[in-house]
Amino acid sequence: MSGDRGPVRVERDGDVAVVVLDNPPVNASTAAVRAGLLDALRATAADETVTGVVLIGAGKHLMSGSDLREFSVDELPEPQLPEVLAAIEAHPRPVVAALSGATLGGGLELALACDRRVALADCRVGLPEVGLGMIPGAGGIVRGLRLLEPDRLLDLVVAAEPIPVGVVGELGLVDEVVTDRLRDAAVAAARSTAKRVLSTLPPRTGKPGLFEETARRLISRHGATPGVLAAAGAVLAATALPATAALRHERAEFTRLRRGPEAAARRHLFFARTAVARAGRPKAGRPIRTVGVVGAGTMGAGIARAFVSAGADVALVDRDPAALERAADQVARAGRDAAARLRTGTALDLLSDADLVVEAVVEDHGVKAAVLGEVAGVVRPGLPLATNTSYLDIDALAATAADPERVLGMHFLAPAHRTGVLEVVRGRATSQDALDHVLSAARLLGKLPVIVGVCDGFVGNRIFSAYRHQCELLVEEGATPRQVDEALLDVGVAMGPFAVADMSGLDVAWHARRRRDAARDPRERYSDLADRLVEKGRLGQKTGAGWYRYVTGDRTPYDDPATEVLIAEARAAQGITPREIGTVEIVERVLTATANEAALVLAEGIATRPGDIDVLMTRGYGFPERLGGPCHWAATRPPAEYAAALQRLGAALGWGFRPGDPDLLS
User: Which positions fall inside the 3-hydroxyacyl-CoA dehydrogenase C-terminal domain (predicted)?
Assistant: First the structure.
């Protein structure tokens, strides 16, 4: 028997053939891997001296999933995974899967086709396809239903997240969990295991009504996306159809969705996140053991909690003891040992042993410059100083420092301890050492660092301001805040823009607009709707009223007649006669304005790649992942259609409108 073919080789352990997948770095399924597996399975089936077969990974993983680059073509390269899995089931001897690392997607489907599954205790398994706009397509649902009840299987598929093997072991997806010597355990299992082809077993059934209840809950949480709906349909089909028919249905749905726009958008984001992670690797890693945070307000407390949760010690400084006490309470929610890693105080001397300092005081240039200057006098020379400003000019702040090369922006997005992306603002003078410190901190936090340049609002807030401005103009023209929120919720935004404004506080954006007043040309179209709300003390949830009204203890946004009056007054002051505005116009105007601002940001060199913007806006600002981010959305529009939408946007904005180059978005 030949032992080698590309990324798959066959080794012998006595009477057991050990088929080793060796396709670094993560053993992804490729045409070459699948061909090698087929050859190995056929060869071992023909060898009468083999009594059992083990499938195992050469490195950390058995198989981490499919190579998504293959998914962008109309027809997948042969052999496809179902052919390999059919060969496993048809093998005359038992086949055992040795699970390790991240055994995801096609990797888990490979394991489910085997007769027994032995896993390392630190292994994680999952079916991530719904998160990529698809469903499992090689029996993950059909075979999974032979081990899990329909409601539990649907939960696993729709969650699309890796799960510790201990959990799935309890559910019955793996047969044996070991702490070491995985190969030995799998070989022993191959000698003692009988053939047990899951697809020949009857599907599990659950408590009547429980599947429907689970489906409603998951659709409410994740939305009625094509992947979620198809997953529910495939589980139902697998409960009712013979396995062969259910497998055909599952594969057909996988193929239909794989070729669709949502899957393409999510693949784009996958590769964009990979590029962001690669660009965000520090050239030289820096140890980040102790972090100083100055400012114990909402953001400062959240930043402290993020670092404590990541295992760092935090020194939190604020002049207000009450603010420190509130922040300490928030940090304590990170876990039982969080309090032991947090020191608080009112004197900056507390920062003397910090490896990095993050300033998070009030959004005012003078205040921030003064704080950074004071901090520079108490920390060790050259220690990087990061400012958590949302809008202010990093270069101007650095210019006030004795050594500007140590200053840069570290823009956390709320909530700081949860959001998975970090906007890293590199100024003209920022040193590579300072950048490496912040990138090392991002790695510690588990956040994707998007490196951007300096402009008002940087990338995220600048693009979000264009998005929000267009929403306000639509209300000025005749839409209602709820109409706009619901139209955008329908295309997948995480939260409607007016509900977001109320949650964040209308005074935050109000201060940013006041800073820009002097530079604003009076000929530029400007909506004062939000200003009128702020002037009436309507700052959002914290005052019980903003664009919507709120009841104490309830964050539900309720329509408010007082808002309608203010909107009518604003329209009358500008001589605007309200008109009917439909959902299609709302979505087109808002998304086109967002994409156009992204094109301008790219033209100015503030962002490096379209994918950087898409990752930042989807991970940090709630732009729909199903659309792939504003750049991908625009780049996949028919050119004539997008050009017409851009022209309509320009007509709505009037003087000063700058059309960006659509070619920069792809």
Answer: 457-550
What CA–CA distance (Å, rounded) separates 391 from 364? 10
Q: Are 96 and 70 within 8 A, CB to CB?
A: no
Could you say which DSSP state residue 283 is in? S
Provide the token pair at 182: 């995985």
- Please give the structure tokens belonging to residue 458: 């940087």
Check: CB of residue 666 under 8 Å from CB of residue 637: no
Strands 421-425 and 407-412: antiparallel
Question: So what's the pLDDT on residue 5?
Answer: 53
Token match 């009076």: residue? 522
Query: What's the rounded Cα separation, in Å, for the pair 349 and 519?
Result: 39
pLDDT in tens, 589-615: 999 999 999 999 999 999 999 999 999
**Residue 354 has what pLDDT?**
97
Please answer whether residues 176 and 165 qualify as being in contact, where contact means their C-beta atoms are separated by less than 8 angstroms. no
| pLDDT, the chain, mean | 95
Residues 20 and 400: their CA atoms lie apart, in Å, by 60
Q: 367-383 burial string, b = 16+ CB within 10 Å, else e?
A: ebbebbeebbebbeeeb
User: Using 50, 70 and 90 to split pLDDT, how confident is the model at 518?
Assistant: confident
Task: Name the pTM for this structure.
Answer: 0.93
Residues 6+ away with beta carbon under 8 Å from 181: none
d(CA 233, CA 327): 47
Contacts 24+ apart (CB under 8 A), 195-199: 195/93, 195/94, 195/115, 196/94, 196/115, 196/116, 197/89, 197/115, 198/112, 198/113, 198/143, 198/146, 198/147, 199/89, 199/113, 199/139, 199/142, 199/143, 199/146, 199/243, 199/244, 199/247
Q: In the prediction, which pLDDT does 337 show?
A: 84
How far apart CA 317 and CA 346 sit, in angstroms, is 5
Is the pLDDT at 532 greater than 50? The verdict is yes
Give 358's strand partners.
293, 386
Determine the average pLDDT of the residues in 25-33. 95
